[in-house]
Design a protein that fits this description.
Helix content is 46%, strand content 18%. With 229 residues, it is α/β, with parallel strands linked by helices. It has a single domain, classed as Metal-dependent hydrolases (TIM Barrel). An 8-stranded parallel sheet has the order 1-2-3-4-5-6-7-8, sandwiched between helices. Helix 5 runs parallel beside helix 6. It is globular and about 50 Å long. The two termini are 29 Å apart. Bound molecules: zinc ion. Zinc ion binds next to loops. The site of zinc ion has 7 residues, from loops.
């Protein structure tokens, strides 16, 4: 029997694995080239980049992102978001998030979201902006209440987990409470983390058969892709 591929919804690595499909978050250099290395890519200004690049440079990158989106080269917008650990850039982060959100809505693409201590900001954002496309919270670190509130306000919210399954007792407790149809897994920027291991840990935590878990996550990915077709 042919087994399904492992789906890595959010990675910054360029490591090809024969039995995995990844949504590759493009680096600044790749954005400037406007040529995603593989089929599934996401394009966005990471909130942390505000610390390292001038406003002029960021504006230039936004132009590349817009071009990539308009020429149909990306599967998702992001990662973008709000990081309250970098509060000095919060206003600009917020402005940039709205820009990504508008782009996602205009082109009906999912948003990959970076959220650090910003759960209530996103609840407010949903109330204000009434998004229609999927929101994928990568490396979700919220609690059960936030998860339920987000899903109630925007049922197309998805939650992705990676290293935290290993190193966060709170996430190990939260994971079984995430609806399976809203779940994704990821390697993010972890160089030594294998997507196979993440699936293995998640399947142990959820007491699910590994192939069943792969099939469910694959279905979620297909569903998003179909929503958008
Ligand atoms: Zn990331």
């Amino acid at each position: 029997m042919k087994t399904l591929p492992y789906l890595d919804i959010h990675t910054h690595r360029r490591q090809e694995t024969a039995d995995a499909v990844s949504v590759e978050c493009l680096s600044l250099e790749e954005l400037c080239l406007e040529k995603p290395p593989r089929a599934y890519a996401s394009a966005g200004v990471h909130p942390w980049w505000l610390e390292d690049y001038t406003e002029e440079e960021i504006t230039k990158v936004q132009g590349h992102i817009r071009h990539l989106v308009e020429t149909g080269k990306v599967w998702a917008i992001g990662e973008t978001g709000l990081d309250r650990m970098s509060p000095e850039f919060l206003e600009k982060q917020n402005e940039l998030f709205d820009w990504h959100l508008d782009l996602a809505e205009k082109h009906q693409l999912p948003l990959v979201i970076h959220s650090v201590r910003s759960g209530s900001d996103f609840l407010q954002k949903i109330k204000e902006k009434k998004p229609t496309t999927p929101w994928i919270f990568h490396d979700f670190r919220g609690n059960e209440q936030l998860l339920r509130d987000l899903l109630r306000l925007h049922p197309k919210c998805f939650f992705s987990f990676g290293l935290s399954i290993d190193n966060s007792p709170q996430i190990r407790e939260l994971l079984p409470l995430v609806p399976l149809e809203s779940l994704f897994l990821e390697t993010d920027d972890q160089k030594h983390l294998d997507i196979h291991d993440i699936y293995l840990r998640a399947s142990e935590n959820l007491k699910l058969d590994l192939e069943f878990l792969k099939a469910q996550v694959w279905l979620n990915f297909k569903k998003i892709s179909r929503i958008l077709e």
